Each structure stands twice: as C-alpha cells, then as structure tokens.
Amino acid sequence: MKPAMQNKAMQHAQRGVASIEFALGFFAFFMMCLTWMEIGYMAHVSSVTDVAIAEAAREAKLTSMEHPSKGEASSSGEFMQVFKQTLAEQTAGYGGLVDASKFRFTVQYLKSIEELGNYTGQCRAADDESIELECGEPKFSAIAVYAVEYDYQPMLSGFIAEPGMLRREVIVVQEYERDAFDF
Q1: DSSP 3-state percent helix, strand, coil across the chain (nearest 5)
Q2: Which residue in 94, 130, 157, 164 has its CB near the most CB atoms, within 10 A?
Q3: Is 97 or 50 the better-scoring residue by pLDDT?
Q4: What is the DSSP string of 11-78?
Q5: For 10-50, what is each residue's pLDDT tens digit?
Q6: Tell me, what's the pLDDT at 20?
C-alpha cells in the first residue's frame, strides 16, 4: 500500500474515533449540566422556604389573641391563618418555581421551656395528610414551633434527585403571650 493511501485510511479512522469521543463527552457534559440545574432548583426551593417560614413566623408571632386586628374577632386559628397567608405571599414573589399548594403547615404551642425540651418535632401522626395542623393551646403559650413541609418533586422525575419532604422549623416566642411564659 502506498504511503498516501495509508494516511487517508488513518485520517478516516480518526474521524470516526473523534465522533465517538465527542458523543460520549457531550453526553457526560449534558448530564453534568442537568445535575447542576437540579441542584440549583433544590437550593432555590430550600432558600425560598427558609425565607418564607422566617417571615411568616415573624408575622404570626405578632398576632394577638386579646387584641384582634382590624376589629375582627380573634380565634385560635388566627396564628395559623396569618402564617399561611404570609407564606403564600412570600413564595409568590420568587418566580413561581415553588408551588404553594405543596406546603403542609404545623404549629405546636408550648407553655414552658421544659415542654420545648421534651418536644420531639412531630405533633402530626405518620398517616396524617392534612394541610394544616395546630397542636396545643395558643392562649397562654409563650413558645410556638412553626413548621413547614414542602413536597419536593425533582425536575427530572427522580433521575438525579429523589422526591421527598423538605422540612423547616422555626421556634419563636409569641410576642403577645410572652407575659404568660412559664419558667
């Protein structure tokens, strides 16, 4: 075989190898980009939930049962309603990537630091699927644990990340109940 023909055969074989290398490299790069997007989405959902629960707990703890706002009668669910409303307002302002209908809310009212020390983190039963749940009596309870669970669904349907609950809790002193604080 002539040297010129050998060169052409080698070049043709190299083009095929380069195509295979490009296809494999592009697939790996594409998977890396999808993973990066999923991690970014998870971080976004987590940070929006963090900001929203902090702001919602701040608003709810300022709610007074003895001093109803706007002349309306106060009820034991007022803390929960203020909490839910503020959380919905907070999540709406972050691009619509966080679905407010996937939240579950829990408020645990505690009367003393001892009760807080014995708090296990759950007042919700394992099979309870209700959207909102209040445990304890809000009147004369100086401490409240506001919790939010978000039903996180990955963008790629479990290919990179697993679906699950994202849970955040905030422990606050109820401003209008702090005089009832039991040491």
Answers
A1: 50, 20, 30
A2: 94
A3: 50
A4: HHHHHHHHHHHHHHHHHHHHHHHHHHHHHHHHHHHHHHHHHHHHHHHHHHHT--SSS-GGGPPP-TTH
A5: 666 666 777 888 888 999 999 899 889 888 888 888 888 88
A6: 86
Regarding beta strands 103-110 and 132-135, do their DSSP bridges make them parallel or antiparallel, or are they unpaired? Answer: parallel
CB atoms within 10 A of CB 165: 10
Contact between 102 and 138 (Cβ < 8 Å): no
Percent of the chain exceeding pLDDT 70 equals: 72
DSSP 141-156: --EEEEEEEEEE--TT
Tokens 């075989």 belong to: 1
**What is the sign, positive or negative, of the torsion defined by CA atoms of 92, 94, 98, 103?**
negative
How far is the C-alpha of 49 from the C-alpha of 168, rounded, in Å? 8
End-to-end CA distance of the chain: 97
Q: Are 137 and 108 in contact (CB under 8 A)?
A: no
